[in-house]
Write a structure and sequence with these properties.
Elements: H1 24-31, H2 101-113, H3 118-129, E1 137-142, E2 151-158, E3 161-170, E4 173-181, E5 188-191, E6 203-210, E7 216-226, E8 231-234, E9 240-242, E10 247-249, E11 258-263, E12 267-268, E13 272-273, E14 277-283, E15 288-295, H4 301-313, H5 317-329, H6 340-359, H7 363-374, H8 383-398, H9 401-414, H10 417-420, H11 434-437
Antiparallel strand pairs: 1-2, 2-3, 3-4, 5-6, 6-7, 7-8, 7-9, 10-11, 11-14, 12-13, 14-15
Helix pairs in contact: 1-7, 4-5, 4-6, 5-6, 6-7, 6-8, 8-9
Amino acid sequence: MRAMAKVLDLRFLGLRAGCLLLLFAILLNGCAPQTALPLLPTTIPFPTVTPGREAFGIVPTPRPDGFDTAALLVSGATPTPNRALCPAPAEPQLDPPLRIPRDMNGAMTRFLAAGGASAALDQELRTNWGVMGANGFVRADLDLSGEGTPEIITSVLTANGGMLSVFGCVGGTVELLYEVVMGGDAPQVLTTEDLNFDGSPELQFASRACSDDETCEYRTQIIVWRPALARIVNLLGEPIISGEPPRVEDVDADQVSELIVRFDDDGSAQTGPRRTGIGVYDWNGAGYVRALTQLDPPRYRIQIVHLADEVFANGAYEEAAALFQLVLDDTSLRNWQNDDDRVLPPYAAYRLLLAYSALEDERRNALIGVLQTQFPDPLTAPVYAQVAFSFWNALEVTNNLRSACVEVQAIIAARPEALTLLNRYGSESRVYDAGDVCPF
């Protein structure tokens, strides 16, 4: 099967009709770009393959950070081990309390192989080991292998964080079929449905880790038993990391469920503004992969500025001009820094002047006229208005974009706030140098 992944970034927004309420109204009415930007992305079908009963999962490589200690192979004594034959019931003793994952799984395996019941194991882990926490469990109600005998699934706390383990009967004894140490709390089971419509139940589970009382994230995994491989495999190459566990939904009504991840964190003073939206994970015939990312419209002026500058850097000057115009137009855009409504419009006007100049668009004449009207004294004008005036004056003399940018670099050298005002939006935001401000 071929894996398909589509990423839609809501990069463009529709220009709002009307004129600027302030002095930029003159500019907007006379200089608005002709190319409208779509408000929402085009709906594209998810890349779900035709459901089939012979799909195989992916066996991940063990990771050194401990978040996925691998799908363990089942060491069958014969080519067709009897997985329905379990040990005779008995009342063994569990080892003294342990905290190292490998030691804990070894002790639990020996307890179950000696005939210990799942209810007795639950009691020992709760009272003697004290490793269940708020979410830990022992359950024996899910037949992952389809042999008629449920596996025993445990969720406990270890020295390395939450761990989920799966034990199964093999020829009259019990073996460890799967283990994963996820960090954070003891993992919670989210679903035990047949998500991909292949006839086998998938086990979706997640562990929550919190750095403080307000900042938490979930790490989600999906595992399934593959009879042809005689092992449990992981259907996610990497855990899904999200603020809330993924929602399971058959979005495109093809009987295969998608995982919907909502990301609502719009950033902090340290990170800068983030785009919110959703991510969709879909079945591709071998595993669940990120199939679609759909971002919400940007809410902050600086987000539009960053997007416009990125488009400008790629040489799409018409598209960049439309976005810079939006910074000037859209009164619903919010400030990230308190003075964004004063600092960013002159910057957007200056960058719009660059775009029009690169396109040799006559709208630049009206634009510079608006700036001169708003800031009649260049010596007291905001730094980005001064940059615009220097660029324009040099361009009129030399008719050369590169020569005009040389004058801009001189202004930036004399007024370093031309860069510091742009580089104050957090660690995840764009970083500017003088060449970015005037790139010709």
